Amino acid sequence: MENRLGMLTPLGYFDLIDAMKEESCPVCFLLKRDASKLLRTILYESVTEPETHAIFRESFGLCSVHGWQMAEQGNVMSIAVLYSAVVDEALKRTRKHQTLSSQRLRGMLNLTSKHTLHHAVKANAPCPVCQRIDENQARYLSVFADKLTDTRFITAFETSDGLCLSHFQQVVALKSTDTFVEIQRSKW
């Protein structure tokens, strides 16, 4: 999005300004919103896509936090379809492990059964929602740090509840101004 001077406004700028009206850390608010949107998209638009099934197979589903958030969405049939791919992958890997775990083969490879089974059932990829949320968090924090001298942004921040300690620490690691720190101190 371009402003009047022809400069691009970074993605997340207006989201952050709007989120500063909420009664929470604006970054936390946006990350929770983004996770919810992504989970709805997976459940209602991507559940039958082979790429989605491949991602779920590689990650062995979602992390505990996002798995429960998905369950709260209530689309039980879609969740069952997605996790059938996960169970199928677990069955495939453990079956392959059983085939390879004969005493003779283990002895030749000098591997223990426990060692190979551990690797067989280990996820090959992180939770896809965590991965996307980490990307979004980095973008929001970068925009936050970059806009600490933007009058409109600072005015919105002054009327907000401020950042949580974790996001405050992360913004300070990127950039800080005396005004930003004083506003945050007043929120504490």
Please explain how this structure is put together.
The model is unreliable at 1-9 (pLDDT under 50). α2 crosses α4, α2 packs antiparallel against α8 and α5 runs antiparallel to α7 (113-120). The protein is elongated, with a radius of gyration of 23 Å. It has helices spanning 13-19, 26-45, 50-59, 64-73, 76-100, 103-109, 113-120, 128-146, 151-158, 165-174, 178-187. Helix content is 71%, strand content 0%. It has 11 helices and no strands. The chain is mainly α.
Give the tags.
188 residues, disordered N terminus, mainly alpha, 11 helices, single chain
**SSE succession:** HHHHHHHHHHH
Q: Spans of 5+ residues with little confidence (pLDDT < 50)?
A: 1-9
Distance between the termini: 34 Å
Fraction of helical residues: over 70%
SS class: mainly alpha
Q: Using only CA atoms, what is the Rg?
A: 23 Å
Number of helices: 11
Mean pLDDT: 86
| General shape | elongated
* Main sheet record: none
Strand elements, count: 0
Proportion of beta-strand residues: under 5%
